[in-house]
Specification:
alpha/beta, two-stranded antiparallel ribbon
């Protein structure tokens, strides 16, 4: 039996993608460095299915139809290079290697050039949706050459999530050359960091200001999920908050340590934003919030040393405050996505990828972690103006942020007054205020730079670049 495609790396994502492909009618060859994983799959979840197990790379490659299609699902970085080094010599010109992990886009660009020089074709494919998405239908963001994509498109389109009124629109379409697919996936993850942190800050405010119980907050999030905030992350937040720990009977969220983990994609997003000069403060604050949470011991020690404000009981309109938190969450979410799409624009221009931002939004409507109703609104915004400078100035979003502004400011102010950390809410509001300001304080900053470093400046009253003798003036 020859296979339509082969997959190397049978961890959770890889194994579920294999089963997804097989369920759509494809025969799949499988290999894992620890070969017992192959045997376990064939004897367990893959028993009786159209799978071809291999215990060596040579056996694996020999089981594939030509042109061979090899998907790699291993840890990003050196492990991907190691697999490529082992497989590539056994492939023929025109065969296709596919990296479906969370690789850094610059690695994908490098690998594309190196493999194409050997006559091989390479695709860097972002896959989002976690364990369930991999099995039932993920969001897929492929980058590489369109010719190579055309060869594998039937497989990836078949296994992807489907949306639309008839459930027949795949969340999978070609993104752009070389590292474009992995870059789009990285920005997806950066936005995911922002979304999650914003939701956590809404939770902290509902608990810390109003004293709502997890069950009460679950009902609030469930209500929010029926409107503009309708999304996978809001839905699961409601479910989490109403779940009880079977051992203690307490709300499950209350027995989980406040110490968050992270992988590399959030940090990469921040690094890329700095490299391109594309401000993404909310996305970066979300990464820093996780880093600060990890310093649990230090935070506990500091809590007995560093005082906060004297907290008084909230005596305002509780229903109005819940609505204001909702407005702050929605407006901050718009800012977070605006930052992500600005970053996509900067990368597209730098690498000449010609990314279609509207279609990118459509890729995220199903299967992935940030799937949400308002991605349709983002698509419409870019359909109306493909050169849109920023999502904030799209008429629909501008109107909604304007309507949410008073509540947003109230919530951030209340958090500051009570010492509740809301770095993502606050940075989003500052980003909004900075972006809408025709004049900011950078004139003084540029004067400082010119004073100590002769960095020059421009003037408001005439063209040209100038330097002033500040020291001579004050000597």
């Amino acid at each position: 039996m020859t296979a339509d495609i082969g997959l190397i790396g049978l961890a959770v994502m890889g194994e579920n993608l294999v089963l997804n492909m097989e369920s759509r009618g494809f025969t799949v060859a499988v290999f894992n460095r620890t070969t017992s994983k192959v045997d376990e799959l064939l004897a367990g979840r893959g028993k009786g299915k159209k799978l071809v197990g291999a215990h060596t790379i040579a056996e694996f490659v020999g089981s594939l139809k030509k042109p061979r299609k090899v998907m790699i699902m291993v840890k990003a970085g050196a492990p991907v290079d190691a697999v490529i080094a082992e497989v590539a010599p056994l492939l023929d010109s025109g065969d296709i290697l596919i990296d479906g992990g969370n690789s850094q886009w610059t690695d994908t660009i490098r690998r594309t050039k190196a493999l194409e020089a050997k006559g091989l074709r390479f695709l860097g494919v972002g896959v989002s949706g976690g364990e369930e998405g991999a099995l039932r239908g993920p969001s897929i963001m492929p980058g590489g050459t369109r010719e190579a994509w055309n060869e594998v498109e039937p497989i990836f389109t078949a296994i992807s999530a489907k949306v639309g009124p008839k459930g027949d629109i795949p969340c999978c379409s070609f993104v752009g050359p070389d590292g474009a697919g992995h870059y789009v996936k990285m920005v997806h993850n950066g936005i995911e960091y922002g979304d999650m942190q914003l939701i956590c800050e809404a939770y902290a405010l509902l608990e810390g200001v109003l004293g709502l119980s997890p069950d009460e907050m679950s009902a609030v999030f469930a209500d929010w999920n029926t409107g503009d905030l309708d999304s996978f992350l809001i839905e699961i937040t409601s479910n989490i908050l109403k779940t009880r720990d079977p051992d203690t009977g307490k709300p499950f969220v209350d027995v989980i340590l406040d110490k968050a983990g992270q992988k590399g994609t959030g940090a990469w997003t921040g690094q890329s934003a700095l490299e391109f000069g594309a401000p993404a403060p909310t996305l970066v604050e979300a990464v820093f919030a996780r880093s600060l949470s990890a310093q649990k011991t230090n935070r506990v020690n500091a809590s007995s040393i560093l005082p906060g404000p004297s907290v008084t009981k909230f005596d305002g309109d509780r229903i109005a405050f819940v609505a204001a938190v909702r407005d702050a969450l929605y407006a901050s979410k718009i800012c977070s996505y605006a930052q992500g799409f600005q970053l996509l624009t900067a990368a597209s221009e730098h690498y000449k990828w010609d990314l279609d931002l509207g279609r990118t939004a459509l890729l995220w409507r199903g299967g992935c972690i940030i799937r949400a109703r308002f991605l349709d609104d983002i698509f419409e915004a870019y359909q109306h103006d493909s050169k849109l400078a920023n999502l904030l100035v799209a008429p629909a979003f501008a109107a909604k942020v304007t309507a949410a502004q008073d509540g947003w400011r109230w919530v951030v102010g209340e958090a500051v007054k009570r010492g509740i950390p809301v770095p993502a809410f606050a940075s989003a509001l500052s980003y909004y205020d900075g972006y809408r300001s025709a004049r900011v304080s950078a004139n003084l900053l540029q004067a400082q730079r010119d004073y100590f470093g002769s960095h020059t400046f421009e003037r408001t009253d005439k063209a040209g670049v100038y330097h002033h003798d500040w020291v001579g003036l004050h000597s």
